[in-house]
Design a protein that fits this description.
about 500 residues, mainly alpha, 2 domains, 18 helices, about 80% helix, globular, disordered N terminus
């Protein structure tokens, strides 16, 4: 007897996440995860500082910080934005082109960072840091090379919006680093061991990363000089923008140390430390959406405008909320950090709070320019921010001291945000941004700011009341984008087997 078979329909290929309607919610959830992971990492670092300082004491702790700063500078100057470019290009390339990109990106970042570490070690020897510090620079540099390689292999995870894993890897590194410091403190170790801890930590995190991406891309680096030349020439303007951006964020610290008294310089350094932690958040939140922006810029102009519009709404809410909380709570923050002797640090921190708002809002426009390959525009924007910061600092720091430096820093941030918006409008005049949400956020900030008028309250309760009022007005006025609420409530369903 004949057996009849029902015809089967061949399985359709799964659609790319970046082209689907779930890309936006996935990016939102990933941004929240990365921000939470960053905050936890900062708290863990704070816990390890007194242990490290107590073991090394002032002199060796100063050597430790100097080496870490030197190696971090090397990483910043040799990366030159290649990580961000890699995320964008991975999201827009396919097949062999994507594989060639990744292999050469691993190779070029490995070589550039290795050269930078060699130069940093030679510098440490040339300025007479001493044998232990020079050897520690080399060891910490090796750890940095491994970390940069690991960061390159993370690019596919970021581009595919697997941001939970990215956050887990970041936290793994932080937990292992703190655990290593604790173990070395208990063991009574010396400076060199604390600097060398970066190597085993980087090896473990790299192994975990390779386990996640194995099979999805070639792991062997490529040293194709022609490809390297094309890659570096393509990112040269953006690389310059990254370097100048790094300078303009920190130039006021240097100028204040030269033009203000030591006490005023200390007040500004304290405020800048707080601000520098917060201004790193937009790069995580908005940077997590870069794959979606890059794909939309390549394929769908209408979608690009929509995503940028929602980004501006969300960054305005978060930026204004954080800025308001910092203005109202600056007294509490500086009181804790200075052990009850804040001096002028409170007013300095309040002035710099404006930079939190502009950093968040401006980052949306800057990542839009990056997605559109407008590298030269980003270079001009960063240059303008540097020029304004330097000029205002030279004028205002001598008479106003730390407050003048804070005004200079905030002025540079405002200029960067305004010019980023203008450059994006020139690049894509068809993109329109609604004022509906920003107007309601301003109203909410005005209501929240009224908490400062309540008599008899210290800055902490004023900040808490102001934040509650701000959030209440946002909810009542329906300023929170529905996409944000939907992403928070709905987790994606697992794919059917």
């Amino acid at each position: 007897m004949a057996i009849e078979y029902e015809p089967t329909t061949p399985a359709l290929p799964q659609p790319d996440l970046l082209d689907s309607a779930t890309a936006g919610p996935a990016a939102i959830r990933g941004s929240a995860l990365r921000t939470a992971g960053y905050v936890v990492g900062v708290l863990l670092s704070i816990v390890s500082v007194p242990l490290l300082f107590g073991r090394l004491q002032a002199v060796n702790y100063g050597h430790y910080v100097a080496v870490i700063a030197l190696v971090t500078i090397v990483q910043g100057f040799t990366d030159v934005g290649l990580g961000q470019i890699g995320v964008r290009e991975f999201a827009t390339r396919v097949g062999e082109d994507r594989e060639r990109l990744m292999r050469n990106l691993v190779g070029v970042r490995f070589v550039l960072t290795s050269v930078g570490v060699a130069l940093a070690t030679a510098f440490a020897a040339a300025v007479g840091y001493g044998h232990a510090v020079v050897a520690g620079t080399l060891l910490a540099g090796v750890g940095m090379v491994l970390t940069v390689v690991q960061g390159t292999f993370v690019i596919p995870l970021v581009a595919q919006l697997r941001l939970g894993w990215v956050t887990a890897l970041d936290l793994l590194r932080q937990v292992l680093s703190v655990a290593g410091i604790v173990i070395l403190v208990i063991a009574g170790s010396r400076l060199l061991a604390f600097l060398a801890i970066a190597i085993p930590v980087a090896v473990v995190v790299l192994a975990a990363t390779l386990a996640l991406v194995r099979g999805s891309l070639a792991l062997r680096p490529s040293f194709d000089r022609a490809e390297w030349s094309l890659l570096l020439r393509a990112v040269l303007p953006f690389a310059a923008a990254v370097v100048i951006g790094t300078l303009y964020l920190r130039v006021t610290v240097v100028l204040t140390s030269l033009l203000a008294s030591q006490k005023q310089s200390g007040y500004y350094a304290l405020s800048f430390t707080v601000i520098s932690v917060l201004v790193a958040i937009p790069a995580l939140t908005v940077g997590s959406t870069l794959p979606v922006l890059a794909r939309a810029a390549r394929d769908d102009r209408e979608r690009l405008g929509y995503v940028l519009g929602r980004l501006v709404d969300v960054t305005t809410i978060v930026g204004v909320g954080l800025g308001l909380g910092l203005v109202l709570g600056a007294g509490f923050v500086t009181h804790v950090l200075t052990q009850g002797k804040p001096g002028s640090a409170t007013s300095v921190l309040q002035i710099q709070s404006l930079a939190i708002v502009t950093q968040f809002v401006g980052s949306s426009w800057q990542y839009g320019l990056l997605a559109l390959h407008r590298h030269r525009a980003l270079l001009l924007v960063s240059t303008a921010g540097l020029v304004v910061s330097v000029c205002v600092a030279l004028i205002l720091v001598p008479p106003l001291q730390a407050r003048g430096a804070a005004i200079a820093f905030a002025s540079g941030e405002v200029v960067v945000a305004v010019l980023s918006f203008a450059a994006l409008r020139v690049a894509r005049p068809d993109i329109r941004f609604s004022l509906r949400v920003p107007a309601r956020v301003v109203l909410a900030a005005a209501v929240g700011g009224a908490a400062a008028l309540i008599p008899g309250l210290t800055s902490l309760p004023v900040s808490l009341i102001g934040g509650a009022l701000f959030a209440m007005v946002l909810v009542v006025s329906r300023a929170i984008p529905p996409e944000l609420m939907h992403a928070a409530r709905n987790r994606p369903k697992p794919a059917a087997p």
